[in-house]
Amino acid sequence: MNSPNQPHPHSTFNVQRSTFDVPNSSFSSSPPLPPAVSCASIHKSFGTGEARVEVLRGIDFTAAMGDMTFLVGPSGCGKTTLISVIAGLLDATSGTVELFGTEVASLSSRDRILFRRKNLGFVFQQYNLLPSLSAAENAAVPLLAAGVPRSTALERAAHLLDRLGLGSRTKALPKILSGGQQQRVALARALVHEPRLVICDEPTAALDAESGHSVMELLSQTAVHPDRAVIVVSHDNRVFHFADRLAFMNDGTITKTESQTALQEK
Amino acid sequence: MIRLALDILRADRAKFFAMILAVALSVFLMQNQAAILSSILTMTGSQIRDVPSAGLWVMEPDTECFDQAKPVRDTALYRVRGTSGVDWAVPLLKVDAFARSENGKLTLAVILGVDDTTLVGLPPRMVMGDASAIQERDTCIIDPGGYNLLFPNEPHQLGKRIRVADTFLRLVGISDASPPFTGFPIIHCTRSTAIPLNRGEGRNQTFILGQIKAGADPAAICASIQATTGLKARTATEFKADSYQFYANQGVPMLFYVVIAIGLIVGAAITGQTFLMFVKENERHLSLLKVVGVTRGQMTGMLFSQAALVVAIGCCFGTGLATLTTVLSRTQPFLRGIFIPPWVAVATCGALTAVTAVAVLVALRNVQKLEPAGVFRG
What we know:
- With 266 residues, chain A is an alpha/beta fold.
- Chain A has helices spanning 79-86, 109-119, 135-145, 150-163, 179-191, 209-222, 260-265, and strands at residues 35-46, 53-64, 68-72, 94-99, 102-103, 120-123, 197-201, 229-234, 245-250, 253-259.
- In chain A, the strands form two sheets. Chain A has a six-stranded mixed β-sheet. In chain A, strands 2-1-4-5 form a four-stranded antiparallel β-sheet, covered by helices on one side.
- Helix content of chain B is 50%, strand content 17%.
- Chain B has twelve helices and ten strands.
- A six-stranded mixed β-barrel of chain B has the order 2-3-8-5-7-6.
- In chain B, helix 2 (13-43) packs antiparallel against helix 9 (252-281), helix 2 (13-43) packs antiparallel against helix 12 (342-369) and helix 9 (252-281) runs parallel beside helix 12.
- The interface between A and B is medium-sized, with 35 and 27 residues.
């Protein structure tokens, strides 16, 4: 794990990774933090009978607080299914998933939504911005869903967008923003409510190399935080160097897990 | 989240306006047809309503409505007057005859000969002239629609002559009689003026109008009159209902019901289908909202608020359009009675609201089935 007080080794901006003031930060706490995400023997299959397809075959996976963990592997290996199970959007066929010590599957449907609303942020490959809403409104959606007054929510979203370099585009509709700018709005939406886990699904796949690198740098600088875990699904090896840890998946299993340091030493 | 939902709705202008248009046209169609139906059926009681002082109507037993009344024996008047509980009773002669104006216009007219002394049977309001002037022999008053038929494009003017049978009636007033169901001119004169015009069965009264003494039981008095005279006695309210029911059972309302039903079905189909399409096309965004933590209750509120906005605007436009056409219609003399009863406005808007609510519930069911994980698909 990188020390949060050190510049990210791969950041060309040479900016401290975390620029957010977070109350009750365990920045300097010495005891090891429990894993943010803990998956044990996850199996997930779709269909029945002969049409049954087992997508996840006994996954054991953890993601630590303060880490940016990459899930990498070829298309169809089960990466997106795994993050869907982790996020509580899909139920595992068997096995357990714990987020911050809570077994998500044991929660009621409503509690699961509320848990997700409070603790999770998402960044998608296709941004998934609401086309009729401005950048600030899009970024503010999680706050609005949580019942934060509109003016406060928009103010916080605009502040975050400013930090992400979109201070002058807060009122712009997604259709007039570039792909990289849209993904930054999506990043703001993922972070605006200060979640403890951010899940990014192929965040650079729809972007050119430069924009993708820029988005990953911002993600690295703003999302990674001692009180937050970040999971990034990617098969874009150009951005693997942003990872603290990489879990390699293939055919529904995690074949190996390596830290960035170990990977670089190789 | 409600404002966010409305922003999303307004952004899709094509569907937003399509839904508003569908609701507006549907409401207009239903209100317009229901108003016409309701108005013309209300007109079946116009001449009964125009004699508010008469709470009791006595007629031949075969009489089913005001327009199809047979004359009664002259002696019946005294029997009615002699019935215990009857305060007073006067005759009313109704003659259906051709009326011709001086310029040759010919039309069938309803001539109502009222009691010479009391003038009970005259409409309560006048447009021009003094109603009591009909006490002079061979004079009459006419309703505005009738005047327009006999003297088209001529300004209201008294002193004109109308020929009925072989008698020339001098016009001494224009009444504000309620528009009749039949559309024929309503000519009021005294009974003594009307009797020579009556070429019927030698009976010179069609109805006996009366009033029941205060505190008396109307049903018992009507039964008593029927027993002593063999005639049918109805309260004004009952007679209006009889006339209404007579025409309501003639099949004409069915045509209006069909158009009203078509309005509802078309409105429901377009509004419901467009709303479902709108939700369908926004599935990805709705999935996203579910992923970021929008609860089922919030989602329900969002969809209902979107539908409510569409229905509210659509109903306002539809009702406004229907009101406008009604107001314009009322400038025509025979359409003076056209109006939109408040219950029609409420019922049509309520029907559209209910239909849209069903569409929202169907859409909600589809939204609940949405797999939020689908939002990860590229």
